[in-house]
Every structure is written in C-alpha cells, then in structure tokens.
Amino acid sequence: MGCQEELLVEKVCEIYDQISRLETLKPSKDVNMLFTQLVLTCMPPCPNLDLTKLSKTVQEIRSKLIRLCGEAEGLLETHFSSLLGSLDNPLDNLNLFPYFSNYLKLSHLEFTILRRHSAANACPARAAFVGSGPLPLTSIVLAKNHLPTTAFHNYDIDPLANSLASRLVETDPNLSKHMFFHTTNILDVTTELKDYEVVFLAALVGMNKEEKIKVIDHLEKYMAPGAILMVRSAHGARAFLYPVVDSCDLRGFEVLSVFHPTDEVINSVVIARKLKFPMHSSLDHEGLAPLMLPCKCSDQIQAFCPLNHEVAIEEHLS
C-alpha cells in the first residue's frame, strides 16, 4: 500500500476504536458524528487499496466495523420508521430520513441497469427484496417512481422490522395493493423464489463472505433460470462499511454489469442472470461435473451517477 492507503487505514482504525467504545449505537449526536466521519473517510476512490493485503488485525477490525455499521444502520432505520409511522402521511415525509436522496439515486441507478438488461425493457410482474428492513425505501421508491405495476415481496427475518415497514405502506391505498411483507429467513424460502423475475439482495444480508455466499448459493438453487439477481456490494475503502461481492461469488449466474458509484451513493451494484442449467449440484444426471463458466463481467464501471442523467448512465453501460 502507498502512503495514502496507509493513512486511510489508520484513520479508519481510529474511528473504529471510538465507535467500539460507545455505550449504544442508537442515533445520537456522538453516534451520528462518528459514522458520518467514517463514511466521509471511506467515500473517496482508493484504487490501490487491496483488502487481501491488509494485516490480520485490520481484517478483523474491518469485519467488526461492518457489523457495527449494520447494527447502527438498523437502529437508524428503526428510529425513522417509527417517527414516520407516527405521522398522518408517512410516505409524503420520507425526506425526513437523512439519506433519502441517496436511496433515490441508488434506486434510479438500479432501475436503469435493470431496464437495460430486461427483455424489451419490460417491468417485472413480481420482484423480491431480501433484507428489506424497517424502512424499505428501495422497494417504495421503485414501486412509486419506476415500477408501478410490479408486485414487491419484501423478506426480512425481523418481525419488528416488517411491522414498522407495513405500517408505512398501509397508509397508501395504491402501494399497499402490491407491496407484501414476509417474516422469515430467506434460507427457508425455496419454491417461492422461482416466481420472481428479479431478486434484490440487500448489502447487509450476509455480513461476511461466507454468509453472503451461502445466501447467493441458496438463491441460485431456487430462482428461476433466466431470472435477474441485483446485488449490492462495496468497492475500495467503502469495503470497510459493507461486505464485498466479487463476480466469482456469483456461481451459477452470468454477471452482466458491475457499477461502482463514486459519489455519495456508497453501494456498488452487481446485476447477474441465473444460468439456464443448475450449478448447485456437484454432479449432473449423467454423473458428470457441471460446466463451470469463468468469472466474467461485461461491464465494470466506476463513475459518478447523477440522479437526473439517465442517458449518461445508459451510455456508460453500453
């Protein structure tokens, strides 16, 4: 690593030390300040940062930091979902959530990439969002702004999260007709997965590489051939905030595009299509090992993604 990367890692470790000493990660002045400082530290592009070359100590700090970020994010969303749910028109006040503009941009990016790789740019009839949480902003934004005819099935393991999310949606007569919530572990969902044309996998479902791959392998086993998987990942120093999904982790899928935003949208987006033949079985019906495709990515893009420049995004992805 160069001097710049060493300074970044040192700064991240300092912030981790302060975060780990907090009594609680519930939203507060100190919590907000430290996590904002962490995000701003990790946001600038850092192309020479190689996660595999970090020391064992830093690797352990990264793993712990991702879990702390996940816990803090869940508490933040729970706080604002409860706040919004107490209002007469929750969905008219989503901008109260401090990162709502980021979700607008990320959802627009995912919709644009999805449309580019969908047959005849058609809207999917049914989509699943795995790890929707108490404040399912992606599903809400996509349903209201981009995919108004799509039935969204939101999966979360936490009953409180789904209770809070349902309360927000039920106030909108139109949205509540095609937004559904399921409280279950996605690893327990099997045959239903074949009904979805698109499956979104949240960044914090699977907090480390092993957990993430287990979920992806499960989705590959039960999703319909040709269905689309949209995975959120992280790139560069942003990998201190979220788990990384590499193309080679998507066994049984053809990776269509990888997009690395460089603005305030933190998550990378990976879109992949399930292959026509099964990959979850070690042997096929003739006793032969299945064909394994090399890891490929037709587009790996690092670019600023302004919300209102749809044409620019299309040109990047072509």
UniProtKB/TrEMBL annotation:
Its EC number is 2.5.1.43. It catalyses: 3 S-adenosyl-L-methionine = nicotianamine + 3 S-methyl-5'-thioadenosine + 3 H(+). InterPro entries: Nicotian_synth, SAM-dependent_MTases_sf. GO terms for molecular function: nicotianamine synthase activity. It holds the Pfam family NAS. Keywords: S-adenosyl-L-methionine, Transferase. Transmembrane segments: none annotated. GO terms for biological process: nicotianamine biosynthetic process. Synthesizes nicotianamine, a polyamine which serves as a sensor for the physiological iron status within the plant, and/or might be involved in the transport of iron. Belongs to the nicotianamine synthase (NAS)-like family. This is Nicotianamine synthase. It comes from Actinidia chinensis var. chinensis. The lineage of its organism: Eukaryota, Viridiplantae, Streptophyta, Embryophyta, Tracheophyta.
